[in-house]
Design a protein that fits this description.
13 helices; about 500 residues; 20 strands; FAD/NAD(P)-binding domain; alpha/beta; 2 domains; 5-stranded parallel beta sheet
């Protein structure tokens, strides 16, 4: 350390200010822990809801459930929150619960190193700054780094091209010929919006997804008055939505009859909305429902039968200066290319460099796929916890519910710290390995293990992203801390490479 180095410090450092970071801040404050700082690389809160501003962007979980339990009675305008409304909700939470003063913007963490002699985390920022904290919490999420495909010639393209998560609002689609590469959850929201404006839209899909109805509508004035005057009705509706999503998760988690029922419902919708048998075959997946993220919409399929929309199933061979050429030799001239190719979801925490005990690199530890005990703790990385970490995403349900389970768990850990008298806590390698084996064994019984390409899985087919049970099971398993699964170091000068 140079004598002129300016170092700030806090008890807890949180990386990211989306639902994970903001919810963590609330629960810390409720526990009387105010010595924490949230570091945000952007100039605004919101995470994925700040970054994804494409036309039609919104949530596929009803608003009542896609909200914090401590601020659930929000006057939502839509049954399924729109991007701007969800971002406003997060801003509201920051204001209401006094979190703003804890956030530092434009502080991108590029490196975090654990100092074994002092038992602290040392963060380094892109601007050269340094911060030290007793505990480090990552709240960067899984869906924050857009994944761009590598296609021959794409750098030669002379027209407009961008990823849907970095929408170019200077681009006017009216009267243009547009190629959309990808047919996942983002595409199903923006394609119906721009299909009405473009002259021609070519949808290049690698594989179709299962589509289920999403009954999207504004919350009526009558329902708004009812929710306001009888809050228990709102709570009952939230419970109803929770139980429905839990039932859908049941279908994913190894119960074939429930999966077949869901598949039948999706097939009925496809038959009703797409009359052309050839197009219907092109839009019918050949894998179990839930293998890829289910697409909740009633607008997607009608958009694909428009006369100015063509669904292209052949693989792309190259992009030229003015066109997209497929492996069948067909060339389609386009003015713009929009990549709806999702996120690098399995590359957790990249591109940050996280170093634990004995210089152990987290990226090296995860070179064969990320895993963490309860999705939160990694052996060799004391006092480091993840929110929305490996195997905590839900195929059906609300990630906000899962995040609150994790946030409460971390707060319990801090509350019990004084009673147990430890300075550093590290999950044992044995506990993490047992948990990983359980995840792998149970994943093999779920629809996530189906033969499809999905952001849930690594290139070799390992599920690193999705939880393999119900939300209630995860809540039960995080309700208390099993201290036999941790090594506790009771003073900051302890040799962290050995036994406490």
């Amino acid at each position: 350390m140079s004598s002129g180095e300016n170092i700030s410090s806090s008890r807890v450092a949180i990386i990211g200010s989306g639902f994970g970071g903001i919810g963590m801040a609330y629960h810390l404050k409720q526990a009387g822990i105010d010595a924490f700082t949230i570091f945000e690389k952007s100039n605004e809160i919101g995470g994925v809801w700040r970054d994804n501003t494409y036309p039609g962007a919104g949530c596929d979980v009803p608003s009542q459930l896609y909200s914090f339990s401590f601020e659930s009675h929000h006057p939502w305008a839509w049954r399924y929150g729109k991007q701007a409304e969800i971002l406003d909700y997060l801003r509201h939470c920051v204001r209401k619960f006094g979190i703003a003063s804890h956030i530092q913007f434009r502080r991108e963490v590029v490196q975090a190193d654990f100092n074994t002699q002092r038992g602290i985390w040392r963060l380094k920022f892109a601007d050269g700054g340094v911060h030290e904290a007793e505990m480090l919490i990552s709240a960067v999420g899984q869906l924050h780094r857009p994944a761009l495909p590598k296609i021959e010639g794409q750098q030669r393209f002379a027209g407009t091209q961008f990823h849907s998560a970095r929408w170019d609002h200077g681009f006017d689609p009216r009267g243009k010929t547009v190629a959309v590469i990808g047919s996942g959850a983002s595409a199903v929201q923006f394609v119906p919006e721009i299909a009405r404006q473009v002259r021609q839209l070519y949808l290049f899909q690698r594989s179709p997804g299962w589509v289920a109805p999403k009954f999207e509508r504004p919350i009526s004035p009558f329902m708004r008055r009812l929710f306001d005057r009888l809050p228990w009705v709102y709570d009952l509706d939230r419970l109803r939505i929770f139980l429905i999503t839990e039932a859908l998760a049941y279908a994913y988690n190894g119960h074939a009859w429930a999966e077949r029922l869901m598949r039948l419902l999706a097939q009925v919708q496809l038959r009703i909305q797409v009359r052309d048998p050839a197009l219907r075959r092109k839009l019918t997946p050949d894998f179990p429902i839930g293998c890829k993220r289910i697409l909740l919409t009633t607008q997607w399929l009608p958009a694909l039968i428009r006369p100015n929309v063509e669904v292209v199933g052949e693989a792309i061979a190259e992009i030229t200066e003015t066109a997209v050429r497929n492996t069948d030799g067909r060339i389609r001239e386009v003015d713009a290319i929009i990549y709806a190719t999702g996120f690098a979801a399995t590359e957790f925490l990249a591109p940050m460099r996280i170093t634990g005990i004995d210089g152990r690199l987290l990226s090296e530890h995860w070179r064969n796929g990320a895993d963490a005990y309860l999705g939160m703790a990694v052996a060799g990385f004391p006092n480091f916890f993840l929110l929305y970490g490996p195997n905590t995403n839900v195929g059906s349900g609300s990630i906000v519910f899962m995040l609150e389970c994790q946030q409460r768990y971390i707060v319990k850990l801090l509350r019990e710290r004084a009673a147990l008298g430890w300075h550093c806590a590290e999950v044992t390698a044995a506990a993490q390995a047992d948990y990983r084996r359980e995840i792998e064994q149970r994943s093999s019984l779920t629809t996530f293990a189906g033969d499809c390409q999905s952001w849930y899985k690594t290139a070799d087919g390992r599920n690193t992203n999705n939880w393999i049970g119900s939300m209630m099971e995860y809540r039960r398993r995080t309700r208390r801390i099993d201290w036999t699964h941790y090594r506790l170091f009771r003073n900051q000068t302890a040799t962290l490479t050995g036994q406490p």
